[in-house]
Amino acid sequence: MGDVSRRRLILLDAAAALGFALLPQLTPVRPGIGAAPDAVTVAVLSLATALPLVVRRLWPVPVLAVVLVASCAALAAGLGPAVLLAVAHALYMVATTRRRQLGRSAVLVGGASAAGAALLTVTGGRNALASGTPSLRSDFTPEQAGLDGILYGQLALIVFGVLVVTSEYTSGMMRVSLLAVPRRGRLYAAKMSVTALAAVAASVPVTVLGYLVTQAALGSHGSSLGASGVPRALAGAVVYLTLMCLFAAGVAAIARNAVVPLAVLLPMVLAGTHLLSLVGATRELARYFPDQAGNELLTVRSPHTAFGFTVLLAWTVAALGWGWARQRRWDG
Fold it and tell me: What gap in Å lies between CA 106 and CA 101, rounded to an integer?
């Protein structure tokens, strides 16, 4: 019976992989930045990104590594953010089957994602700037390039925020924690405070070092830490990452398991809301999602920083408040 159920799940993964392979074929989900890739390139990279997902239940970590590399190549070729949904699909399986390796998995996934994004940005950006070709977005700047990788590196903190909360429920340690600290409000506040401090401690060096590495790779086209708008954007990036980690922790406290938060948050931040922002009918609505609003915090010289901070803070406070209400009523 178990083998039959496993085969059925693999068949479902095969169907999902087919969908992920077909999605990049749709031109509306590919941003128009320079020349569009030819049909053969799109087909090959789409298959390379999607086909490994068929066996994600058998080898979750190797599949994630392959899909992440293929997605980075697809992004470099101009396929757009739709390929990142395949990364979310693979990452979900790793996060839900490797809970005992929470810290290591979160750091590796986030570091690999940020490094891949930074590599794509600096290599593609430097070559295009040097050659004078129009393959970059019209709004490309070296200052912003140093911060773009953060949007992918946030995966680590989202996974961390979710699993640091849900691990106590799934392992039964919540009862032990309540015996040690019977006042649930104090326990919840302490847990979220530690989560926030860990997020800040990870965000500061990653943000600053990521920016410096990107500028060094851009060579003569790079900028400095003191460039106009950069210090504020770097501080905003730390705030963004911390609030997104707390938002994920709050959603996890609401759900009391890792399945729902990871299934919703990973696709959302990787591509979901970005795709909504590309469609005219949903562009305005997308601005009010936490990740899209928070992007204003790490946008150099953004005129909408206050708006983005307010929206993201509201989502975070709401998630943490609802999570606290759920924990008060938890009876084991």
Answer: 8
